[in-house]
């Protein structure tokens, strides 16, 4: 039975598999957003209740679970960070019935699918920004790509080849199955010796294992690394010693030197305690998605997908706990910052 006083949200995040490394922090961040939204009156005057769907299950299982929830008529929206192979099934299951806000950037997988808002970061553009900065700072312009074999990276690799202009060049692409434990095929390949650095397009635990192997091979001291999917959980999983010369572009990695980020982390610690998972990059994406959902529906006055699109087609500016943002189409407009890994944490260097 539908509770008219409750606004139910499905939050799809991986709790197992290679992407499971981000799951605990994403769940905890959703808890903070839920608490803050309800303290401010909920969504459309209704109390928010968030249910986590494990995005680490098989794509078919997740699609069936989302469909079953939607069939009850109780679900008002879907959020989360579903992996690319999972996302297609989730979008198909939702089918425009409720708004779906994913805390990841638009990778072109769905075009202008109604009701789907890819409000996170743009990994392709951010990677190019990072490479251009690394060229200016270090003269690095020859790159090797090390990627996991999944939908997103299969799109990203040719996109990077198209997007990169002189002086940049990609000297080699190395693609490994998800869950790979041995990266010698890349680390011992002579082509890697001709690269100034590595673009890391690996997922979660795979990236942590690669970073350790890269460091053990002695390359970390002489070759740079960058990548658009690294977060604090990855740095911790790889170990502080595995993160030298690792530069990461992001619009959302928290910087404790900035007052809004510092205060948000303090609220998170008060709610979950000092031993809670790191309030990481992807945790911020989940937090931001939920607050964006609340602000969007408040501005429109409805959760109806067509009414939302009518309102935002000309651009929408709104403010919430994660800051003030402009939504154009399905994308939040946010400045890019360059971070350097410092042990198991990030240090912000500049805004691009």
Automatic annotation (TrEMBL):
Residues 11-342 form the Leucine-binding protein domain. Keywords: Signal. The keyword Signal applies. SUPFAM superfamilies: Periplasmic binding protein-like I (SSF53822). Transmembrane segments: none annotated. InterPro entries: Leu-bd, Peripla_BP_I. The keyword Kinase does not apply. Coiled coil: none annotated. Pfam families: Peripla_BP_6 (PF13458). Belongs to the leucine-binding protein family. This is Nitrile hydratase regulator. It comes from Nocardia wallacei. The lineage of its organism: Bacteria, Bacillati, Actinomycetota, Actinomycetes, Mycobacteriales.
């Amino acid at each position: 039975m539908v509770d008219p006083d409750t606004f139910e949200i499905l939050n799809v995040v991986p709790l197992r598999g290679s992407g499971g490394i981000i799951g605990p922090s994403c769940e905890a961040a959703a808890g903070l957003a839920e608490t803050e939204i309800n303290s401010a009156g909920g969504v459309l005057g209704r109390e928010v209740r968030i249910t986590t769907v494990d995005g680490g299950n098989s794509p078919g299982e997740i699609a069936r679970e989302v469909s079953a929830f939607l069939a009850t008529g109780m679900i008002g929206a879907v959020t989360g960070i579903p992996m690319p192979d999972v996302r297609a099934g989730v979008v198909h299951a939702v089918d425009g019935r409720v708004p779906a806000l994913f805390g990841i950037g638009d990778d072109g997988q769905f075009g202008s699918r109604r009701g789907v808002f890819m409000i996170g970061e743009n990994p392709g553009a951010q990677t190019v920004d990072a490479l251009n900065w690394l060229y200016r700072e270090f003269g690095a312009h020859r790159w090797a790509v090390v990627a996991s074999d999944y939908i997103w990276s299969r799109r990203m690799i040719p996109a990077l080849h198209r997007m990169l202009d002189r002086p940049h060049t990609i000297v080699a692409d190395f693609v490994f199955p998800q869950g790979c434990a041995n990266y010698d095929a890349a680390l011992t390949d002579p082509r890697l010796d001709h690269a100034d650095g590595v673009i890391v397009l690996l997922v979660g635990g795979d990236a942590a294992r690669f970073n350790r192997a890269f460091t053990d091979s002695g390359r970390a001291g002489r070759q740079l690394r960058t990548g658009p999917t690294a977060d604090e959980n990855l740095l911790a999983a790889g170990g502080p010693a595995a993160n030298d010369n690792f530069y990461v572009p992001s619009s959302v990695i928290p910087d404790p030197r900035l007052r809004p980020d510092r205060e948000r982390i303090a609220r998170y610690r008060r709610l979950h305690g000092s031993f809670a998972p790191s309030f990481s990059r992807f945790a911020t994406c989940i937090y931001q998605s939920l607050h964006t959902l609340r602000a969007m529906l408040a501005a429109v006055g409805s959760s109806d997908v067509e009414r939302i699109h009518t309102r935002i087609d000309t651009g929408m500016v709104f403010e919430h706990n994660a800051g003030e943002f402009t939504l154009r189409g399905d994308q939040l407009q946010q400045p890019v910052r360059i971070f350097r890994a410092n042990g198991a944490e990030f240090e912000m260097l500049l805004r691009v």
